[in-house]
Amino acid sequence: xxxxxxxxxxxxxxxxxxxxxxxxxxxxxxxxxxxxxxxxxxxxxxxxxxxxxxxxxxxxxxxxxxxxxxxxxxxxxxxxxxxxxxxxxxxxxxxxxxxxxxxxxxxxxxxxxxxxxxxxxxxxxxxxxxxxxxxxxxxxxxxxxxxxxxxxxxxxxxxxxxxxxxxxxxxxxxxxxxxxxxxxxxxxxxxxxxxxxxxxxxxxxxxxxxxxxxxxxxxxxxxxxxxxxxxxxxxxxxxxx
Length: 241
Description:
Elements: E1 6-10, H1 32-42, E2 47-50, H2 55-61, E3 68-71, E4 76-78, E5 84-86, H3 95-105, E6 112-115, E7 120-123, H4 131-141, E8 148-153, E9 156-161, H5 166-174, E10 183-188, H6 194-202, E11 206-209, H7 210-213, H8 218-229
Helix pairs in contact: 1-8, 3-4, 5-6
């Protein structure tokens, strides 16, 4: 199957970008934006980012490139034509929960609270013993509501509405141009990407896990994408079935 017949969906942190000490300290490698721009052109626009990051952060990191993208695991979706679609207000983490998390975090040195328009994440990379009390707090908050869940991530936990996930975002984009009629390929690195892997597979495509296929190294993902982008120069291009 020709590479030009695929639609490519990419996670950001841990897939395109190496994990860092904090969300703000990630480094965007040289030539990554150029590679993504070449891929988008070669795929006639069928390239999207599916990330837990807010959409504005995705855009800042990949500036000046504006790709189709799902921010906050799909709570905010930008289609290829630029249209923005957000999930219902019911998917927003309640203000009272946010206040309780911030108050508790003041007692955990090194813990970072990441606010998002729909969800909220707590990073404890610099205070690993805080993992248990953080989980205890989050489970207590959602104890009487089964519509929210605690989402595990690398040295972090996030509150997310159960109806929001990257798999739904991928499926929505695959029903639109220029993704429609193509075969989806998703690359992700952790449990937050499993819904998108399942969705891509269900639609007849592939879901690749960075730990398994790329030895857990985003640099290998970037190298593979750069090699693929290099095939869009008029020469024959193929991808495995």
